[in-house]
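--- STAGE predict ---
source: upstream dedup step, 1 unique chain passed
mode: sequence only
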Amino acid sequence: MPDVITLSDRSSGWSRRISGAGQDGRAEISWIQRTDPEVASAQTLITEIINHSGRRRCVAVEYRFEFTHTDYLPLLAGVHPTPSWPPDGELAYAYVREENSWIRMGIPFASLTSVDRNVGMSVAADLSDHPILPFQIRMRRTADKTVVIVNRNEIRLEPHAKNKVLLFVHQHGGDHREGLAWMRATWSHLFTVPEGVGAKHLWCTWTGTNFSEKRYRRAMDLETFFDRGIVLTRNRNWLGANFPEQERWLLCIDQKWHLLQHKTELPGHPGKDAALAEIIEFVEHLKPADDLVKDLQGQREGFQFWTWDWYTHQGVRDHLDRMINQGLSWHFYFNPNDVWKPWAQEKYPESLYMPDSYDSYVDTTVLDPFPGSAWAQRLVDDARRIFASYPRCDGLFLDQVYYDLNNHRKDDGVSIRLDAKPFSRHQWNLYRTLKEIRKLADQHGRTLHANFIYNSLEIASLTDFGLLEGVDPLQNVARFYDIGNRMHLVQIMDELAAQTCILHGWQSGIFKTAGQDDHDRSLRPMLGRFYASMMILFQDRTLVLEPHCLTLPAGFKGNVFRRPDGTLLATVVTPGVGHLSPYRWRNLAVRLRLSNAAKIKRIYQLSTDRLGPVAVEFRRTGNDILVYLPEHRSGSMLVLGTGGKFVSMKEPTIRRSAEREKVLFLDDLDKGTREEISVTVHPDPYGKEYMLAEYAPADDTVLPVKSVSMDGKPDFEWRIPPPGIDRSRAASSIGRATSPPRT
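--- STAGE serialize ---
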């Protein structure tokens, strides 16, 4: 429990330590402080504040915890989640930041653990009370103690009214997973999506704003590795019109006008400061000469901006029917924040509060969907029209939802400044609007797919899955939204992204370019061959948060996931080591501690050194399992089978030989049988050392993944050290840093 609780009126400077019930007549404020025990290890601190004055107030409640040990390790659900203790100063994190100097949190949750003493504590705001009020946490370590200060720093108190704030505290063992497991169990609805979402929607590609044959072929090529994919479209006449009101419209009028507004010499040009209707009429009727189009393209690339093709809702339906009939799913692009400025100024002036867009869109601004505004209603109506007009649409792709902006011209009914003046917090209003769209999506059986959420658990909880444009520290905050069965998709594809994906249970853009040779050894298709067979197993997975469920040698990272069929997936990555590295580890020790260890019947390894799974031996003692990876380099996955059918290679890899057939194992874990099956092998087209074995698994086979070669191990001619590096010395230094055996 906190050592000290302090209540303060930030508007006047008054503050006082509180406990139980009390009041201060001169300050015209009273309080009730109580604790509700949920279970023996968890308590809810409830602070109720009553304002007896006739003025609005900004109040704060601060909780101070002091611990007499200094061996704690922190975990904060945000950017840089596991920081080192600063030698002088403190860690300062915040959810809904008051100052930009505080490190951003994606969830108001933090944990401290002592591994040696097997003790820990986690704190969290009330995650089900939306919008979640601002949450600040500071941590510091002195010579003899550890101090944690939690501050609920912006509580709005209306005249002659009351408000309350909750802080949840959970005591547990010395593994951060226990705190995360408590959070997931307490607010499970925030981290759980309907089963089957991950199996249906695997990866996304843009068909672009023009429906060309090239775009269509690119979308079709997704089936190189995955059975399904997602198609996104941006068929709008201007930003803000998520659903064009016209039956027939010209694409991207806003982007065209961005440069055309300066071409005042063109016949019929209405002038740079023309009214909205004049702009639209001019652009729609312009028939640009080839030299004008060439000039525009030289100033700003983008083929779709400089075509005067017209679109219709029926034409969009016909195009997307073609995609859907091929087995792909389709999400309609929906940007709730960025709006073409001339249109916004004429149609929604009451929601204007920023001069320009928060992002890089040209000639755009941002509209605040404050409660009761026409803009908030427009967004909901657009979603309703999309669902009604496009019955085969699988859902919406929500872009640009991370704007944590403040509109001081409006009042959202919750936000309060230090001077006690109300304001409107844009992101909270967007959450309220998207919540209504979520209701519509549920009514129509549609999904919501959002891009780049890192600062709003409220918005993340409305989505079925998410997209990340990279794997930088800011975007990696999404790992905390995915501790249940929600999953993110990563847009880029390089080895760092692939390793991050298998570490957090995500999928990445591992598809080849249309027309690319099946045996092309450029980076993207090779990474696809290495990682696709692991990533596809993450469909509908849930993060395992049992204490000490995975222990690896120093220098390695990993996680454990559970599939709906009971199969467990343990991933291992080597930070800083790629599939081209000359260094690899043999007999790498992996220790698992699982409550259902007795149900594990066989274990298989997938790795970046082979696409085909191999069965590995393991030793079980009670709930503990010890596995030695036969070979590990940049990324591996252990597949712990509890039932079902698995195909694996009898040999560690399939080398070139005169034989035209090789033997694979077919294990039926339910029956406890193992069969040997023969498959045809094909020589590597480059004439190298290894061969490829094709196997078409039955529908009920867990491994291998359908349509992926059993073995695609690259020749070791790729694995050469960079010039100027002493291979033996480098290998020795890696060995000292990470401890596992090495070759």
